[in-house]
Amino acid sequence: MKFPIALSIALLISSISQGQTINKTDEKILRQKEDSLKPLSTKLIQGINSVDRFKADSSFTRILVRALSVKNSFLYPFDSLQTISIKVAPDSSFRIFTWQMFINDNVVRQHGAIQMKTADGSLKLIPLIDKSDITQNMADTIADNRGWMGAIYYKIILTKFQDKNYYTLLGFDENNIRSNRKIIEVLSFNDGKPVFGGRYFSVPNNSLFPKNPSRYIMEFKKEASPRLTYDPTLGMIVMEHLVSESNEPNKKWTLVPDGDYEGFKWIDGRWVYVEKIFKQVTPEGQAPVPTPINESKLGN
Prior knowledge:
By secondary structure, this protein is of the alpha+beta class.
């Protein structure tokens, strides 16, 4: 009896392994698609005018969808696309593509998609539609993929509560000509459908942020570069405290870091605010974000 059982296990492992690899023909197709995507991804940012950038974005999106339609494309890294952020969930259940397109000096729009990992290697793709420009209160908005708030994600943190997975996203947004933003939001899935935001923050009332928001938005002066990152040693999201240069905290474009650190700790299904962190953590490596963005602004 031992031999058939061992053989069955070996065959099962072999079958699983084969289902998680890209065959040579498909890999060649994916490399060709990546070669086509690379110049378009650069043009998204560096196109001469908005018309060129819109055309590049349209072509990039079409080719990317075709590439992802190749069987087991989830395993292909597309790592030559330097202006595209591709972040894989810690449990490898999905990955998120995000990128940005400059419309003009005061308007930047984010595009993106979630690729779910499937058992048979087929494509399950969820488009992300940026609605931040028509949303009045981003901090209090809970939405699906068609009401996405838009960000370039540079970190995914996996937490659990009551046997459910929650994926906290750290993102960056070149908001407008006066200010940038960093965003913390929780992504969850209900019946396979994404939900961005939720009552997962416990924040006291203060002059900078609303109490218990649906997402935590850190808006600051364009030239500033406050840290917002995750420290696994502390098990905390760590960020620099902001103060107004002109003593006008409601004017977000006047906010700059003051050298103190605050953060969030995941406790009983919520990110609980910690007012002061005395231990300064070691900076993470460079975050994979679009080339024109100063990477020093993203958590270093």
